[in-house]
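#structure-requests
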Amino acid sequence: MTPLLDVADLHVRIAGSHILQGVTFSVARQGVTALLGRNGAGKTTTLKAILGIVPKTGSIRLADDDITALPTHTIVRLGLGYAPEDRDVFAGLTVAENLRLAERGPGPHRYDLVHEMFPELKRRAAQRAGTLSGGQQQMVAIGRALLNDNRMLLVDEPTKGLAPRIVTEVAAVLERAATEVPILLVEQNLGLVRRIASHVVVLEQGAVVHTGTAAALLGDPALTRDLLGVS
C-alpha cells in the first residue's frame, strides 16, 4: 500500500539553527504512526513544517498532492487536521464557539462523531473554554481536528500535563479516532504509544535514526533506552 504522507529530505533552519537535518519518513493510510524522540529532537518542528507553519526545504506529499510550497490554509483544506501542543483553545470563547471556528467550508461537519466521543463537550457547550480542565481542553483540541472530514490528523503531545485517569480517556479517544482517520502522533508517554501506535519514527538531533513497528521498538528495552533514554 502506498503511504498517505511522504516526507523526504526535510530541512528547517530557524534563527541560524539547523533544527531538521534531512528528515525522511512516511505515514501509512491507516492507524497511528508515532513520532518519538528526546526533548528538542525536532518532533513539533516536523509537524509545523508539514503544515507549512515554519520555512523548510525538501519534499512533502499528501497522497497525490505536493504540499511542500503550499501555504498553511491550503494544506489544511487538502485534509490535514491539527491538534497542537498545549491545546491552544480560545479561552474567552465557549466550547461551541471553539468548535464552530474549526468548521472548514460548507461541510460536512461531524458534530455527531465529536459529541459521541466527547459527550462532555455537548454538556459544556455554553461554558467558556478557558474555565475547562486541561483534559477537557484537550477534548476541545481533538474535537476541532475531528470536526472536518480530514485525510490525516497531526496530534502533538495530547497527554502532556494530564492526570493518569484523563490520559486513559484520551488514549481511548485517539484509538477510536484512528479507526476513522490515520494519525501522526507526537507523544512522550510510551504506554500510550504501545497501546495505539502501529509504527514509530524516532528523531535524534533533527534526523531520523530509527523507523519500524512500535512492537519491535518497545519490545526491546535496550533499543528503547538507547534511542529514547528510557526503559
